[in-house]
């Protein structure tokens, strides 16, 4: 059993030694920064390869005392929504994202609370031969600012792609 786990760990580390590494902490920091800037209530990010293997993920809800882990019901929603779009659905270019060479699809849906919406964005990078799938979902009160999926979540996707390229 240990040999199998070491082999998997070695293969995964070999896949990301070409300068395209990103950790849970990187993704968590990006998400926290954007949530603060957007005045969003909570959010989650799932970064995976095209086979569905998780590379990094993060979740965060903003409280008066600072960032905290999301509640489990929100994470269940994030996991369910992350499987919603396939690559073929995500061929649209959005303003502000076209220079990043991604295929992306945004969505906005009313949350289970009054005046709250979930905005999400699924992105495949690079657009022509995708290696990564990035899913971002955020909850926003309509009075705090934009609550549409693309403008709300695009800064997270952009920063993750820049981190992958460094």
Question: Any descriptors?
Answer:
Penicillin-binding protein transpeptidase domain-containing protein; Beta-Lactamase; 166 residues; 6-stranded antiparallel sheet; Beta-lactam/transpept-like; alpha+beta; globular; 4 helices; 6 strands
Any chance you could write out the topology, listing elements then pairs?
Layout: H1 2-15, H2 24-38, E1 42-49, E2 54-63, E3 66-68, H3 72-82, E4 103-110, E5 116-125, E6 132-141, H4 149-165
Antiparallel strand pairs: 1-2, 1-6, 2-3, 4-5, 5-6
Helix pairs in contact: 2-4
Brief overview:
This is Penicillin-binding protein transpeptidase domain-containing protein. This protein is of the alpha+beta class.
Mean pLDDT across all amino acids: 80
CATH-derived topology: Beta-Lactamase
Parts with pLDDT < 50 across at least 5 consecutive residues: 1-19
CA-based gyration radius: 16 Å
CATH top level label: Alpha Beta
Strand order of the largest sheet: 3-2-1-6-5-4
The coarse overall form would be globular
Ends: how far apart?
35 Å
Number of strands: 6
Name the CATH architecture.
2-Layer Sandwich
Q: Total number of helical segments?
A: 4
Order of helices and strands: HHEEEHEEEH
| Count of the separate structural domains | 1
- The proportion of residues forming helix, as a percent range, comes to 25-40%
Oligomer: single chain
